[in-house]
């Protein structure tokens, strides 16, 4: 009896073969499969081996069994099924992990997935944040909880090594009773019976560690399960590392963008300044248009206003924009010599590796009594416009060559005076070249801009800017456009309170 050790002829079958004894009685009593009809095989197990028993009943009523050892076949089928389940799990887990670039959500997803597939609970430990460990815990079927724990990873066997990216220690080397309380989730009611600690490998830097916990009511982790847990951990670590890298890059980008964005303008040295900016693409915060106001060192010194347009759009144009703004800020001490400033800026751009050019307009602004004196210089840029108190719109006759393209820059500076309530408008060609209107392809144009500005008589600078931006946006509709930038320089109205009859509420007049 090589197939059935412990079975002797004529003796009762042992308890492990009770399934065969019961099947023998059923075959003996079977009246359906008479006359040599084929009977179905009977499956069963004996001493870790799996059989299919095929019965034959003799004419005298005896039952003879033909046993086929199917242990290898069943093992292969189970292995194939398990491999399919693992492959499906890895595919689904990858989709879940890569669906978010938020590090905390990625840690929570890792803990939930691991707890549901591998164990009764899972814990994700990130590298220390100061003196605390970021820990995410999850029980199978539940939500993940996150927090910072003041704990020494060395108190958990293999955790300190896993956080450094070293290979995991076998689970059989870890005593479950030695786990600290902070590691075991509150929802795990049964004591831990088996533990796996495996690293979460990142992109060159360890992303953390994954700890799997099984209660003592389940079998211990097998070597195959530990190997598969490491495959899952590799994917989870890559996703977590990508999320942290994205967060770091986003933080850097946000910091850099903060310096590239046009500033919020306000009153400086008794002069009202207002600005508006709209990038060419809604998903971009910066572009090639820019403006700045640099106050003079003292109230007796003019402030320098700069509005410009760099060739191109998007981030590359924004990089050159930042360089121009920084260069101009360094040239503020000589701000009243516009031609000198433009020559130095032109030299700086020609000596760099960039192949882009820019147009801009400079305005030196000084409050003098109730008036605001301007010195305006255009370098290849649309001429500024001034709206007078009587509704006239004047184009300042300044002109010049663009910067960053030619060895020498030529420019003409023009002086102008703003009376109380009058505004000088600086703008980029994104306003006048905006295509839209009833037919969708007509330019907004210079004349339409002048008519719009004529409607702003006596308005504060912010209202002027908002009016121009609103009309341009309505003209564009949903169509594409270049970057748009506009700056208003306004001489504040000098006001005093008057009353009609000495008793009624008065009104402000210029």
From TrEMBL:
Annotated PPM-type phosphatase domain residues: 268-491
Coiled-coil spans in chain: none
Segments forming domain GAF: 101-250
Keywords for this protein: Hydrolase
Full protein name: Serine/threonine-protein phosphatase
């Amino acid at each position: 009896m090589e197939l059935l050790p412990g079975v002797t002829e004529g003796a009762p079958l042992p308890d492990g073969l009770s399934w065969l004894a019961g099947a023998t009685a059923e075959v003996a009593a079977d009246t359906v499969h008479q006359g040599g009809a084929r009977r179905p095989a009977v499956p069963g197990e004996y001493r870790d081996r799996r059989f299919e028993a095929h019965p034959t009943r003799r004419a005298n009523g005896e039952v003879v069994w033909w046993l086929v050892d199917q242990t290898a076949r069943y093992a292969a089928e189970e292995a194939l099924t398990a491999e399919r389940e693992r492959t499906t799990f890895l595919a689904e887990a990858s989709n879940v992990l890569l669906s978010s670039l938020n590090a905390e959500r990625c840690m929570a997803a890792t803990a939930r997935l691991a707890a549901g597939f591998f164990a009764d609970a899972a814990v994700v430990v990130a590298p220390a944040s100061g003196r605390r460990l970021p820990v995410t815990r999850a029980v199978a079927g539940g939500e993940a909880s996150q927090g910072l724990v003041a704990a020494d990873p060395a108190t958990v066997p293999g955790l300190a090594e896993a956080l450094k990216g070293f290979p995991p220690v076998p689970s059989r080397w870890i005593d479950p009773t030695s786990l600290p309380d902070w590691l075991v989730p509150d929802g795990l009611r049964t004591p831990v019976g088996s533990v796996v600690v495996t690293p979460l490998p990142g992109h060159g830097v360890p992303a953390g560690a994954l700890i799997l916990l099984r209660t003592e009511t389940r079998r211990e982790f097998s070597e195959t399960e530990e190997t598969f847990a490491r495959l899952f951990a590799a994917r989870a670590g890559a996703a977590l590392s990508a999320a942290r890298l994205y967060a770091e890059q986003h933080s850097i980008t946000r910091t850099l963008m903060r310096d590239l964005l046009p500033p919020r303008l306000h009153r400086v040295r008794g002069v009202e300044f207002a600005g508006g900016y709209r990038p060419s693409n809604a998903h971009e915060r910066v572009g090639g248009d820019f403006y700045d106001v640099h106050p003079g060192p003292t109230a007796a010194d003019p402030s320098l206003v700069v509005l410009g347009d760099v060739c191109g759009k998007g981030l590359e144009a924004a990089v050159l924009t930042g360089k121009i703004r920084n260069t101009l800020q360094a040239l503020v001490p000589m701000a009243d010599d516009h031609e000198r400033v433009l020559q130095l800026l032109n030299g700086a751009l020609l000596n760099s590796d960039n192949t882009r050019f820019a147009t801009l307009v400079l305005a030196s602004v000084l409050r003098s009594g109730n008036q605001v004196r301007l010195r305006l210089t255009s370098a290849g840029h649309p001429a500024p416009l001034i709206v007078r108190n009587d509704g006239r719109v004047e184009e300042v006759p300044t002109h010049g060559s663009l910067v960053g393209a030619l060895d020498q820059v030529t420019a003409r500076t023009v002086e102008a005076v703003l009376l109380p309530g009058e505004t000088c408008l600086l703008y980029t060609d994104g306003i006048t070249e905006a295509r839209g209107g009833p037919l969708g392809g007509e330019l907004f144009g210079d004349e339409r801009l002048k008519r719009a500005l004529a409607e702003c008589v006596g308005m504060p600078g912010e209202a002027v800017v908002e009016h121009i931006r609103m009309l341009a946006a309505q003209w564009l509709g949903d169509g594409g456009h270049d970057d748009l930038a506009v700056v208003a320089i306004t001489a504040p109205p000098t006001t005093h309170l008057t009353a009609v009859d000495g008793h009624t509420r008065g009104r402000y007049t210029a």
